[in-house]
Amino acid sequence: xxxxxxxxxxxxxxxxxxxxxxxxxxxxxxxxxxxxxxxxxxxxxxxxxxxxxxxxxxxxxxxxxxxxxxxxxxxxxxxxxxxxxxxxxxxxxxxxxxxxxxxxxxxxxxxxxxxxxxxxxxxxxxxxxxxxxxxxxxxxxxxxxxxxxxxxxxxxxxxxxxxxxxxxxxxxxxxxxxxxxxxxxxxxxxxxxxxxxxxxxxxxxxxxxxxxxxxxxxxxxxxxxxxxxxxxxxxxxxxxxxxxxxxxxxxxxxxxxxxxxxxxxxxxxxxxxxxxxxxxxxxxxxxxxxxxxxxxxxxxxxxxxxxxxxxxxxxxxxxxxxxxxxxxxxxxxxxxxxxxxxxxxxxxxxxxxxxxxxxxxx
Length: 362
Fold this sequence. Notes:
Helix content: 55-70%
Strand order of the largest sheet: 1-2-4-3
Largest sheet: 4 strands, mixed
Shape: globular
Number of helices: 14
């Protein structure tokens, strides 16, 4: 029978955190399903192919996994090429851009193509009004939100044009977070990396320690978060930081209301991936960390597999009720974000009426 400990053991082995598989897998079909649920098929296949033949899945499942892994590699090549092409296309239109998460995170992995790619989140150096007006030249009904506008497909890859990397429900904390983003923006647009297909800008390690924590928090509160994002953050932290940087990060996390989530994330990374103490950005929070891990395993990538909710996102009233039920469930551990979520929704409604009145509204 499959157990979560077997999955965690294989994950550590696949990321070279341990030199041997501590918990042999007893149900490979279930393991494959969990890898799919967490968007970690490519990561785990790196461990599977290192196992002795007698410990590997059946030949049939190995072939299936190999084919899926090859698709992940090809998808990464395509998204890399599109990120480079999009960066150049935006530059020609007068926009500097920075690719958030995604392909920049993949570069931190031992094998970049092991990470399952997604859409392209392009942060544009412009105001919300400028970004929305630009996108709606090509997509008049493009849906705009507080932090991004949907840019549709670019060479078969979904693109979101961001004018804010992320946000918080608590309006005071959000104001502080947006101030941090503005102060750090120039360094991010100037931080270039080279992919096999060309050059793009990606955030610095220091920026990612704050931004990606906000991203994790945002998704946990609003829909759910998966292990792929926690593995990303594991590699962000393992780039290292000085004691002075750690102290500065702690101040920023606290000012922006991210300290409870940071403690939970560090706990999960310590328990699952044996994150060494020198990489703890804050002290682990066991109570919140256990809850976070349970949410991750129950909901899968971005909460898509959570059987506790009806996933009624296309029906406004039902989706809003689901959101309120989620706030109630998370309120004891993350009260600031949950209590302020209804307030932010009212604020967001009027924001969209003012800045994005032509797009589709919830």
